[in-house]
Amino acid sequence: MTAKTPEEPYATMLRSSLWVITTRPARGPGMQDLLPAHLEYQVAMERDGTLFGAGPIFVDGGTVPPGGMIIVRAEDEAAARTLADADPFHAEGLRKYTLHRWMLNEGSMTVTVRYSDQTAVIG
Predict the structure, then answer these.
(1) CB-based burial of residue 84 (10 Å sphere; 0-12 exposed, 13-18 middle, 19+ buried)?
(2) Exposure letters 86-120 (e unless 16+ CB within 10 A, then b)
(3) 8 A C-beta contact, residue 88 and residue 34
(4) pLDDT tens digit string along 31-75?
(5) Among candidate residues 78, 75, 88, the one with its CA nearest the CA of residue 23
(6) CA angle 103, 105, 106 (to 5 degrees)
(7) Which residue has the higher pLDDT, 15 or 24?
(8) Cα dihedral sign for 102, 105, 106, 109?
(9) Cα(55)–Cα(86) distance, rounded to whole angstroms?
(10) Measured between alpha carbons, how far is 103 from 51 in angstroms, rounded to an integer?
(11) Is the pLDDT score of 121 beyond 80?
């Protein structure tokens, strides 16, 4: 096996830019009322290919998530911010967010599709 130069492994990495939206509460009650609209918005982004992943963030083994993370595909920061601003939780001021560009370099995903029972497993 030939030794690789330090640049070679990086040259083959994915280097896909995504945007990470981390959320935190901004004000009190009202989230339960907007939860259906928030989830509908996320499912719509999932179906159109914009949403990479989303879910709550738990701190120190807690069971109540103080925040959440939404990872989206967007051309640039302005497009990512437009997506974040349109989330009903953010639009109504129930949650505030922070936006970060994230470069996905390495990792893996396994998808198993079973034709016999029409199931899929992501692992």
Answers:
(1) buried
(2) ebbbbebebbebebeeeeeeeeeeeeeeeeeeeee
(3) yes
(4) 889 999 999 999 999 999 999 999 999 988 887 788 899 999 999
(5) 88
(6) 140
(7) 24
(8) positive
(9) 17
(10) 15
(11) yes
Q: What is the C-alpha to C-alpha distance for residues 94 and 110, in angstroms, rounded to an integer?
A: 36
**CB of 122 within 8 A of CB of 109?**
yes
Q: What sign for the dihedral angle of Cα 55, 71, 42, 110?
A: negative
CB count within 10 Å of CB 66 equals 12
Provide the CB-side half-sphere exposure for 55 (13 A, CA): 4
Q: Rounded to whole angstroms, how far apart are CA atoms 64 and 57?
A: 9
Distance CA(2)–CA(55), nearest Å, equals 42
Burial class (CB in 10 A: 0-12, 13-18, 19+), 38: buried
